[in-house]
Write a structure and sequence with these properties.
two-stranded antiparallel ribbon, alpha/beta, binds adenine, single chain
Length: 240
């Protein structure tokens, strides 16, 4: 899986994704992170990539050309290597809110391009020309698109075969069935007067599975009843 990130801060992406599980996946060749500096594609002096907004108003707007050219360079490379034109995700609070189902859908792609905005946004013409998906990570505003891109890349990467060492862990955690994950315990059996639920020590796998399912359901009802009501587009027919 190849991630291409169009950004003014490539070092932020490289450092953020170069550690922990995504860092190991990069080293093992399971994912590739190609951070492309939009500034390398400006023809203006001093690496200028932004300008004042037409019509006035606060802040600066990222110019269309360096964004367009940086995308074209990535597209050209992908096509030259015999792969299809990629989906281009623009990280924006105006997009559809990212969820596990979207992570699963994106994980099917061979290449994904993320376009990270800064300042007061990007010239609309560049967006019209290159973007296929507008995606937000929540209803709040950040200073730039790099953190949202990293959030999405992290959650997509862990669905790529081999990235998590234990295959099962991606299947049974929160949201896998539109349910939150059950509580987990490890040694010791008692801590500060709190005991591990007896059923988990019983060795009876059927009973353990049943208990975990019930706890998942209880936790989802308490903490995220919206998931059970099906307000989220994830398939809810798995509930009995
Ligand atoms: N850029 C700024 N805020 C954002 C958000 N909430 N989601 C995605 N991209 C953003």
């Amino acid at each position: 899986m190849n991630f291409h990130i169009l950004t003014l801060f490539p070092e932020m992406i490289e450092q953020g994704l170069g550690t922990s599980i995504t860092g190991r996946a990069i080293k093992n060749g399971l994912i590739d992170v190609n951070a492309v500096n939009i500034r390398d594609y400006t023809k203006e002096r001093h690496g200028k990539v932004d300008d004042y907004p037409y019509g006035g108003g606060a802040g600066m707007v990222m110019q269309a050309e360096p964004v367009y050219l940086s995308y074209k360079a990535v597209e050209e490379q992908i096509l030259a290597e015999g792969r299809k034109k990629p989906r281009v995700i623009y990280t924006t609070p105006q997009g559809k809110v990212f969820n596990q189902r979207m992570a699963e859908e994106f994980a099917k792609e061979e290449d994904l391009v993320f376009l990270c905005g800064h300042y007061e946004g990007i010239d609309e013409r560049a967006l019209e020309l290159v973007v296929t998906d507008n995606v937000s990570i929540g209803d709040y505003v950040l200073t730039g698109g790099e953190l949202p891109a990293m959030v999405m890349i992290d959650s997509i990467s862990r669905l790529v075969d081999g990235v998590l060492h234990n295959d099962d862990s991606a299947k049974y955690e929160s949201f896998a069935n539109n349910l939150l994950e059950y509580p987990q315990y490890t040694r010791p059996e008692e801590y500060m007067g709190l005991s591990v639920p007896k059923v988990l020590l019983s060795g009876d796998h059927k009973k353990v599975d049943q208990w975990r399912y019930e706890e998942s359901l209880k936790r989802t009802k308490e903490r995220r009843p919206d998931l059970l009501l099906g307000s989220d587009p994830i398939e809810t027919s798995n509930f009995s």
